[in-house]
Design brief:
alpha+beta; Translation Initiation Factor IF3; four-stranded mixed beta sheet
């Protein structure tokens, strides 16, 4: 089951901090979908995933909304 974290309208560092906090509640192997509008997340979210050991499955942008699918390692 996938969870969605809406951080639209928030600016750095809040989207990354909230993503990191939300990932603590995601079960192993499960996916968190993050929706953000801050362009800095294009750099910050992949960096968070690399540093924390999360798997960034996809990063897309649609109409100014950046969507990240992040998997908690099994």
């Amino acid at each position: 089951m996938s969870q969605v974290l809406d951080v639209k309208g928030l600016n750095c560092p809040l989207p990354v901090l909230r993503t990191k906090k939300a990932m603590k509640a995601v079960a192993k192997g499960q996916i968190l979908t993050v929706e953000a509008t801050d362009p800095a997340t294009q750099t910050d979210i992949p960096a968070l995933c690399e540093a924390a050991g999360f798997t960034l499955l996809s990063a897309t942008e649609t109409n100014g909304v950046f969507i990240y699918n992040i998997q908690q390692p099994a």
